[in-house]
Every structure is written in C-alpha cells, then in structure tokens.
Design brief:
Shape of chain A: globular
Strand content of chain B: over 45%
Oligomer: heterodimer
Structural class of chain A: mainly beta
Distance between the termini of chain A: 31 Å
Largest interface: A-B, 29 and 25 residues
Largest sheet of chain A: 7 strands, mixed
Radius of gyration of chain A: 13 Å
C-alpha cells in the first residue's frame, strides 16, 4: 500500500466513449502527476499539478483532460480516444514538486484498453 | 535533458548479488540519483536515493563515484521476488521555473531464476 489509490484498475472503452480515471492520495502531498506507460516503452510524464495548479503539460493531446480539485484528488478525463492510447496510466504524488529530493509515490495504475 | 543509460536486461540466480550500473554523464550539480523498482502492472516503487559516495538501506546499496557520472545499484542475495524492472533517474529542470521533473528511461529488466 503506497498511500496512492487509483480507480478503476481496469477500463475498456470505445473510441466514442467518455470516461474518467480517479486518483486519491492519503499522504498529505502537494504535487500530483499523471504518467502513461505503453507496452515496451518508458513511462511518459503527462501532467503535473503543484498545489492544485498545473505546472506541466507534456504536449499531451486534448483528448486527455486533467482536473485537480484539491491536493488530494486528481482526475484524468478521457474522450474520443484512439486505440494507440491503450496503456497503463499511473498516478503519483510527492511532498513538494521542484525539490532535488523529490520522491514519487505511485498508485497501481489503471490498465486502459481502447477498442 | 539529463539522460541515463542502463543495460536493457540482466539475468541472475537466487542468492547472488546483483549490480546494475547507470550512466548519467550530464548530471547537474544539484541532482540526486534515485532508483525505482517496478513489477508488472504496478507503479514504480522507490528503492534508494543518493548524492555521492555510498548509501545503504534495508533493501539495497547505492555506490556513486566522485565524478557522479555513474552509479551502481547493488541488490544483495536476490530472490525470485526481485524480478522486476529497475529505473535509474536524475532530476531535470524545466526551463527557468526551477521545477524539477523525473524522467524515466527504459530501465533494466532483471530476471532472477531458481
């Protein structure tokens, strides 16, 4: 148990569907992240929120829309996805984004399949 | 971008010591070196972090030479459950914001056999 909970664990959706991924952290951290991990590829940083403010958008397509209502919750809203968006989506948190001692705590991820 | 280079894969047997070396020639003065472990279908898990010389915890040791251009993660007496992907990371600043993000490379896939 890392203190970062992601739901759902698995999601299958069609290209015309709209769904949302949820992440909640119980660690009192101020920064939260979305990473994407495709098969056989490195983890790709998608978004970073620091004190609820988005500080990084790593050239992610607009069909991925993040939302951070508070420092404990992070959402990733999905719409009109493509089959190549199928991947493991990982949420992480850290105590303070921007420090040299940054340590990330990851959730177990949502395995997304787009049909 | 600060970049790391690791072997793609390594094989070992139970009870052996495993050393995974990572190159980071462009490491910045303020960067720490951090290692994570990832099992299939799970998020990476922090293992150890260091700045220079040697760091040891209950799981592993991290050896960093004086020039800090490389580091070695040492796993003593590995077991089957140590089969995983191991990532070496250094920080990377984004523009002039001071914000530091951690960039994951391809990692080293360690397979421990009986």
């Amino acid at each position: 148990e890392t203190g970062v909970t992601q739901t759902p664990r698995h999601l299958v959706m069609g290209m015309t569907n709209k769904k949302s991924l949820k992440c909640e952290q119980h660690l009192g951290h101020n920064a939260m992240y979305w990473y994407k991990q495709s098969a056989k590829k490195p983890l790709e940083l998608m978004f970073v929120y620091n004190f609820k403010e988005q500080t990084e958008n790593n050239s992610v397509p607009s069909r991925f829309s993040p939302e951070c209502p508070n420092s404990s919750h992070l959402f990733l809203h999905l719409h009109t996805l493509q089959p190549e968006d199928s991947a493991l989506y990982l949420c992480a948190s850290s105590a303070l984004s921007g420090t040299v001692n940054e340590k990330l705590f990851f959730g177990s991820g949502t395995q997304l399949s787009v049909l | 971008l600060a970049k790391t280079t690791q072997p793609i894969s390594m094989d070992s047997y139970e009870g052996q010591e495993v050393n995974i070396t990572c190159s980071h020639n462009n490491i910045a003065t303020n960067d720490y070196i951090t290692w994570y472990q990832q099992f299939p279908s799970q998020g990476p898990r922090f293992i150890i972090q260091g700045y220079k010389t040697k760091v040891t915890n209950e799981v592993a040791s991290l050896f960093i030479p004086a020039d800090r251009k490389s580091s070695t993660l040492s796993l003593p007496r590995v077991s089957l459950s140590d089969t995983a992907v191991y990532y070496c990371l250094v920080g990377d600043k984004v523009g002039n914001t001071g914000f530091q993000k951690l960039v994951f490379g391809t990692g080293t896939r360690l397979l421990v056999s009986p």
